[in-house]
Automatic annotation (TrEMBL):
Gene3D superfamilies: 3.10.620.30. The chain crosses the membrane at residues 37-53, 60-81, 118-135, 142-161, 167-186, 212-235, 590-613. Keywords: Hydrolase, Membrane, Protease, Transmembrane, Transmembrane helix. PANTHER family: PROTEIN-GLUTAMINE GAMMA-GLUTAMYLTRANSFERASE. This is Transglutaminase-like putative cysteine protease. Residues 469-535 form the Transglutaminase-like domain. The keyword Hydrolase applies. Residues 548-559 have a biased composition (Pro residues). Residues 534-575 are annotated as: Disordered. GO terms for molecular function: peptidase activity.
Length: 757
């Protein structure tokens, strides 16, 4: 009883382990929280519920399990709600059900456990446990029962992509649990093949051995072929970064004002007393609203990839500023600031009381459903001051990865080209160029809060080159920051524009007059460094004192032809030489397809060979030889059918007892013939007994009767199996490997030898 109970519980334990490992693989990209316990609970609940419902009809399991899943997901939503006063349990549940998958794929890693980010993994683990328990429990096949957890495990790996740390022990543990489970739950069969008649000759025994060796060699050859074909693909992908499925999903988008908040500077400057928000800071420091990196000669754009985030924000993946860092805690209350961009000191790593999306490249925040008046939130940032001692010798990075920070449009005005060349004279170093550009703008241009908005190349050309009488050489921080960034890019400096506010120590209101924009330059080994090209006062020097536009005889440090016009770096391969032809390359998808085709071809060929050998042997048994040999051949076909049905008779049974045993074999498949008994084998068993002690008494009529009974029994027994089992029956190689070699013994009441099963 204990052994039977242990055998019944073992598949459940194996499935619990496999489904739990699948949940553990998916939880790696989540922040610490309730997700892992919820996934383990979903695995246990689905498998145990299916096990408890096994005595009931099949159709009752799915509805009951789905009702339980609904209650469990409702509990998960309740546990992961963030205390939003405006959200009820049902509204949060319905919102999560509608948006679970897109929000999961647009969430920043590490993902915080929220109703809309835990729903998909919980449902996936529950379904994997349910299907696995049904296949392993009711179907009696742990191999098939392990498939749903394996699919869930693979889906977890795909979801994690390159965003989780490698955990080699998990796949090893998964494979070990599968192997142990399959080994311990394998059906124990009494393989004592019996053949009535005389002991086979040594020649037949050698044929059997050669056949077994040939089958093993064919299987080994197939495995080696697959290893040779797939080996380079597998090992070649070890060092490659996994594909991130989030790249195929469009993240939340900003409106026009949020995509280019630089155009809001002039509007805020015109209403300096507008109350935008309240801030509480530990010291004077700038508050960032947005980072604009893309410029096409007309418009500066944010170009961010915002991903839904939780309280704990991901690390910044782009170039980070190096230097002395300090943790800065801030509190904000939104007043009249509208839009979706969320102010914070750089670089935030935690936010409370506000659900935001995060751009890991720039470290900025975004709220898809816009800020609301009265909204309060707290931010914790890591504020870094660059090491000024490194700036004098620092260089700037180059390459396709930084092309978006050097793009200035397709056509550069000659006036700006000449001005960029003038500023770079006698300033060979990167920092020297940036510092000279900052001083040039601060000394010769005035701040005018009433200046018109605009930062396209014609606007900047007017601002930089026209006289004060003509309306030039005066503007807001929009023109100063944009001019610095564009001229800097023409000098070969990677630049970007930041829009934000001047923050002060303590709790204070942030007004529209505090809005400003400033440029940043990227230096190798230092990171992004802020510059302030704004004039300190209105006493500026005439531009003509230091610079008179010369005839255009020189080109900028970075010629326009070398500047990438697209914000995305070019990934095109270098062109081949004239007259050369590109050689075909076997890419990973092609190799994978070829390996799959090869494996499928080997399987098809192997199945055809097994089928032909099986049919050939059946024909020899039933239609070749003497009547006694055909009777024995018919008996062998019956015995093979019994073993293929999974019911090997005990070795001590005689032929007559095996005939009775064969008539009592149960079948699982329900059909019109389910209640009818299998064809009787009593006459065939009597003929087999006759062969054992008087083989010469049998004639053609008896041989035909034996063949007819054997064929009828095998056809009926096979027909009552499921479709899958019927196909497996026809393609099984096991009958070719069974060794029929057993002497005959005497049956009680007989004076001569009787074939023993």
């Amino acid at each position: 009883m204990v052994t039977k109970l242990a055998r019944g519980a073992l598949p459940v334990v194996i499935l619990l382990a496999l489904t739990g490992l699948a949940g553990l693989a998916g939880a790696r990209i989540y922040a610490e929280g309730p997700l892992l316990p919820l996934l383990l609970g979903a695995a246990a609940a689905s498998i145990l519920l299916s096990t408890l419902l096994r005595p009931l009809p099949n159709w009752t399991v799915a509805p009951v399990s789905m009702l339980a899943l609904g209650g469990y997901t409702l509990l998960a939503v309740q546990l992961t709600m963030r205390g939003d006063a405006d959200a009820t349990l049902m509204s949060a549940y319905l919102d999560a059900a509608r948006n679970a998958l897109p929000r999961l794929l647009t969430a920043a890693v590490p993902i915080e456990a929220a109703p809309d980010t835990v729903l998909v993994p919980i449902v996936a683990v529950w379904l994997a446990g349910l299907l696995g328990a049904e296949l392993a429990g009711r179907g009696g096949r742990l191999l098939f029962g392990a498939l749903p957890p394996t699919v869930a495990y693979a889906a977890a790996l795909v979801l994690a992509g390159p965003n989780a740390q490698p955990a080699l022990w998990q796949p090893l543990a998964y494979a070990a649990v599968c192997a142990v489970g399959l080994a311990l739950t394998a059906r124990q069969r009494t393989d004592a093949p019996v053949l009535t008649g005389d002991q086979p000759s040594p020649a037949k025994d050698r044929v059997f051995q050669l056949r077994a060796i040939g089958g093993a060699a064919a299987g080994l050859a197939a495995m080696l072929a697959v290893a040779v074909a797939a080996g380079p693909l597998v090992f070649g992908g070890v060092a490659k970064e996994p594909h991130d499925p989030r790249t195929a999903v469009v993240p939340p988008r900003e409106d026009a004002l949020d995509a280019n908040p630089l155009i809001r500077i002039s509007g805020w400057a015109a209403q300096p007393t507008q109350h935008l928000l309240d801030a509480e800071l530990p010291a004077d420091m700038p508050i960032r609203l947005a980072v604009l990196s893309e410029y096409d000669g007309v418009t500066w754009k944010v170009g961010a990839d915002y991903r839904n985030a939780g309280k704990v924000l991901p690390s910044v993946t782009g170039p980070a500023t190096t230097g002395k860092s300090s943790v800065v805690k801030q509190s904000y209350t939104v007043a009249e600031l509208d839009g979706g961009l969320v102010p914070a000191v750089s670089t935030p790593n935690r936010i409370d009381n506000l659900r935001v999306a995060f751009d890991s490249r720039s470290g900025t925040l975004f709220k898809a459903d816009r800020l609301a008046t009265g909204q309060k939130y707290q931010v914790e940032s890591v504020y870094t001051k660059p090491d000024v001692n490194l700036l004098s010798v620092a260089d700037v990075p180059s390459g396709d990865a930084y092309a978006r920070y050097l793009s200035v449009g397709s056509t550069l005005p000659t006036d700006l080209v000449n001005m960029a060349n003038h500023i770079t004279e006698n300033n060979p170093g990167a920092y020297a160029k940036a510092y000279a550009l900052q001083g040039f703008l601060a000394e010769h241009y005035k701040f005018n809060p009433t200046a018109a908005s605009g930062h396209a190349l014609p606007n900047l050309q007017f601002f930089l080159t026209k006289t004060v009488a003509e309306g030039g050489r005066q503007g807001t921080s929009e023109q100063f920051a944009a001019s610095f960034a564009v001229l800097g890019r023409m000098m070969g400096l990677p630049t970007r524009v930041v829009v934000g506010f001047k923050g002060r120590s303590g709790k204070h209101p942030v007004l529209a007059s505090d809005a400003t924009a400033w440029p940043e330059v990227l230096f190798t080994g230092v990171g992004w460094v802020s510059f302030d090209p704004m004039p300190q006062d209105q006493n500026t020097k005439p531009l003509e004192d230091d610079y008179t536009p010369p005839p255009p005889t020189k080109t900028p440090s970075v010629p326009p032809s070398q500047v990438t016009q697209s914000p995305l770096a070019s990934t095109a391969a270098p062109a081949t030489g004239v007259g050369s032809a590109a050689e075909p390359v076997l890419t990973a998808p092609v190799l994978l397809m070829l390996s799959g085709v090869l494996l499928f071809g080997l399987l098809v060929v192997g199945a055809l060979v097994v089928g032909l050998l099986r049919r050939s042997r059946t024909g020899r048994r039933l239609r070749s030889g003497t009547p006694s040999e055909r009777v024995l051949g018919a008996w062998l076909e019956v015995r093979d059918a019994i073993r293929l049905a999974g019911h090997t008779p005990p070795p001590h049974l005689t032929a007559s007892e095996i005939a009775l045993y064969a008539s009592l074999i149960p079948v699982r498949r329900r059909s019109a013939r389910h209640g009818e008994p299998l064809p009787a084998l009593g006459p065939l068993a009597e003929l087999v007994n006759v062969v054992g002690f008087a083989p010469g008494l049998l004639g053609e009529a008896e041989a035909r009767l034996a063949v007819e009974q054997a064929v009828a029994y095998v056809r009926e027994l096979r027909g009552r199996r499921s479709l899958f089992n019927r196909v497996a029956w026809s393609l099984s190689i096991r009958p070719l490997l069974w060794k029929p070699s057993r002497p005959v013994v005497a049956e009680p009441g007989m004076s001569h030898a009787t074939p023993h099963a």
